Amino acid sequence: MTTFTRSWIIPVSIALLASLATMSAQAATVVADATASTNLSGIMPWTTNFDGSRSQCVGSYPCQYHWNYGDGTESQSFDDATGIKTSSHVYTTAGNFTATLTVTMMAPTGVKPQSSATIAVTVQQGETLNSYVNTCKQQLSFSDADVAAVATQLNCNKGILFAPGPAPVNDAVGYARINDSVDLVFACRWLNNGFGGGTTPPFFNAVSIELLMHNRANGNTCFFESRTSALGASTNIVSPTVAGAAAPNTLEANFWNLPIEVDRNRPCVDCHVAGPYISTPRIASSLARFGLLNDGHDTFGLTKNAQGNVVGRYHAVGTTFNHFNSMMVTNNGSSSCTSGCHNIGFGSMAKDVLAGLDKVLLPSIASVIDNSGTVTPDISVTTSGVMPANGSAI
User: Fold this and answer.
1) pTM of the model
2) 3-state secondary structure the chain
3) What is the pLDDT of residue 333?
């Protein structure tokens, strides 16, 4: 009986262990599956969104999801059933990177089942602030010395308040003549925001500052946008030429966004489609005081004439903003909201601009505009982007 019992027990025990081992292997299945939902390649700083939610982690223990982005940075990991299944990362240097998702089953003892998946990401340098500024200097024809001569004017307190409220709106526009051909215009947004308002200088803490430089002779234009983190409580504006040549990681170097950041954050030609100066009722009279509206020079946006040829001298400078020019051609030939709301002074050669609560703005436009577009289609609302001089948009 003893021999019989042992011969019966041993085979059963082996079978049971084999069965348990099979169940354990099945219960510890880990499969990493990583995808990038968007942006596998682009210009730095470049954000890539990673998704590991299709990974499989079947077992009795929680799994850890860990992302290594390939640029020396990693995500924080959590030892729970969800972990970081999706992640977003900003690549701030150029190069070819391999992002890796590692899924690990956190068994308390023994070998922890693990699986990994990789994704290739390519990030390019693109235009630096310095290279963009140098392109602007070359194509607009101005020098560092030209800008240095007007540096003291680059201050939000030297501007004209064109949006006085109600709070928290408190916007000012400023101007400096760089040389005989080049104008510099800047807008300081939400001045004194958080400092109790105030409609007279001194102003503090602009939420944002936008600046453009425009050559009246050839129409070439450059756009700049400040970094929010660089503003602090100061309203002094760092010259783009100073910022472009500044040492890395200094206040001056970090004052303006990179061209690609401007393009992503604030596609300028969405509003500046018909010319460098947005001529809405709120700001038109201020710009006119600087001689920037209806001063006889060509500020026509790029568009197509009856023969299908692209005409107009207004042009966005730089490889980053090159696509702005095709936007001009498209929008200036349509009845889009952009071309209908922001272009009161489009093409006018009158030298006077009148403004007031009981006065019609830009009377030269009001006297010639053709709302139907049947008599003078080249200056109609629907074809040229001209808005009636008494329009209500701001």
Assistant:
1) 0.68
2) CHHHHHHHHHHHHHHHHHHHHHHHHHHCEEECCCEEEECCEEECCEEEEEECCCCEEECCCCEEEEEECCCCCECCCCEECCCCCEEEEEECCCEEEEEEEEEEECCCCCCCCEEEEEEEEEEECCCCHHHHHHHHHHHHCCCHHHHHCCHHHCEHHHCEEEECCCCCCCEEEEEEECCCCEEEEEEEECCCCCCCCCCCCCCCCCCEEEEEEEECCCCEEEEEEECHHHHCCCCECCCHHHHHHCCCCCCCCCCECCHHHHHHHCCHHHCCCCCCCCCCHHHHHHHHHCCCCCCCCCCCCCEECCCCCEECCCEECCCCCHHHHHHHHHHCCCCCHHHHHCCCCCCCCCCCCCCCCCCCCCHHHHHHCECCCCCCHHHEHHHHCCCCCCCCCC
3) 64
